Amino acid sequence: MKGVRPLLNEEIQRITTCFDGTFAVRNRCLFIIGVSTGGRISELLGLVLGDVYQNNKPVSDLLFDKSIVKGKENSRSVPVNTDGRSAVLEIIKWHRERYGEPLDEQRPLFPSRNGQGTRPMTRQTAHSVLKQAFQKAGLNGSLATHSLRKSYAQRLYEQTNDIYPVQEMLGHKDVKTTLRYLGINYVKVRAASEAMGFSYNQEKKEKFPPVDEASDEVLFAEVMRRGYNISKVK
Description:
mainly alpha, two-stranded antiparallel sheet, globular
């Protein structure tokens, strides 16, 4: 979804406490697995238990099969971090308590309220429960289901400072698509802006951590993302 923003780490932590009701575990785990793997909402809702839980433990690498990815052309594998694996354990426990044993590997990971867990929740329901959590967390700005995917992209880029792993993990054919996912690191911009200022009282001037210098490649990528033609730059 165009125009939605990614979430900051502090916002992600706050949102995890904002799910309640009978399906709170399902909804919270959808959110956590989403921001931990970068799956599209359609891909997340297409997952079944056997995709995330094998040999009595959470998978360390999640395969989004081509049958559920956009375009249905190529599968892709994404590492599952500690947060994601913890969410898998939580929702597996919830499935056992709600639907009993044995676990059905083909049961939707995020089931609908109806149908005894045989049907996945709809995109409309996912949008609704996430929107409610965003509002309960007191967040503003343009937020939607796609914010989970954008949050993953932004956080991965800030950890690697390399756009190509982000492109591969998101399953983008063109790196230009990935560029549109990445916004400016506002925390760094705020610190840099403050550091640019002068103080009439040098003794009280606040100290800020140095801001990393961007490589030419990153700078050109940002310029291109903003729509400027760099072909005439000498």
